[in-house]
Specification:
Layout (H helix, E strand, L loop, with lengths): L1 H10 L15 E7 L5 H10 L4 E2 L2 E2 L1 E8 L5 H7 L7 E6 L10 H10 L4 E6 L2 E3 L4 H6 L8 E5 L8 H22 L11 E4 L14 E9 L1
Length: about 220
């Protein structure tokens, strides 16, 4: 009965998107990268080339926070800046003590964001389509302040990949089902959007302020 009540909400969830929908608001995409020299050239251009424009001017910016990378990521990130006016990167050269993981570089990215709507993804992830941002933006209706997306992994040979893809799918099935039931409890930074004001008060948000939308695929 538990599975029938909650998981069926995702199974039967249907939403139509207007792929020609004009940007309703400007957005800031933030990507935290650490030693992602191989992933960035494969995935970052797909974020920079999203179809989310007004009169050929991008209605979004992309900020890559290079978090103390020891590889040559900084050279690639610097080399593409002239080709994308809506892109910039931030170099972090000193780790924040007592702040593990991506929390510190993410806070730097959010602080530097120009727009009030923040979209998060990872350097090893690729949007499901050139309409990814448009689809995410269409979730901010009826007072919604958080939009959850799905971030599956590429299918690769090997048992470990099967385990990872299953765990990712089952985890998403749970948090998306609960979100659709009006009791969201988590999301993943691979594909998540929210109003910038929520970053300081996210625990206080009412459960009805969450929407479910598009996908990114991760390696």
């Amino acid at each position: 009965m538990y599975y029938l009540i909650f998981f069926s909400r995702v199974a039967f969830y249907r939403r139509k998107f207007d792929l020609d929908h004009p940007p309703a608001e400007d957005m800031s995409v933030i990507i935290c990268a650490k030693n992602e020299e191989r992933s960035l050239p494969m995935n970052l251009p797909t974020v920079l080339q999203q179809r989310y424009h007004v009169h050929n001017d991008p209605s979004y910016e992309v900020i890559v926070v290079n978090d103390n990378s020891e590889d040559d990521s900084k050279y690639y990130l610097a080399s593409i800046e002239n080709g994308y006016p809506h892109y910039r990167h931030i170099e972090i050269k000193q780790a924040a003590k007592f702040i593990p993981g991506k929390k510190y570089p993410l806070s730097i990215g959010i602080k530097g964001a120009k727009h009030d709507t923040v979209v998060l993804t990872d350097a090893d992830c690729k949007p499901g389509s050139i309409h990814w941002l448009s689809m995410m933006s269409q979730g901010f209706t009826d007072g919604k302040e958080i939009v959850l997306g799905y971030g599956p992994y590429y299918k690769k040979p090997g048992f470990l990949n099967k385990v990872i893809r299953y765990e990712t799918f089952f985890s998403a099935l749970q948090y998306l089902s609960y979100a659709l039931s009006g009791i969201p409890y988590m999301g993943v930074g691979r594909n998540l959007a929210y109003k910038k004001i929520c970053s300081s008060a996210i625990k206080a948000l009412p459960p009805t302020n969450t929407s479910l939308l598009a996908t990114t695929t991760c390696s």
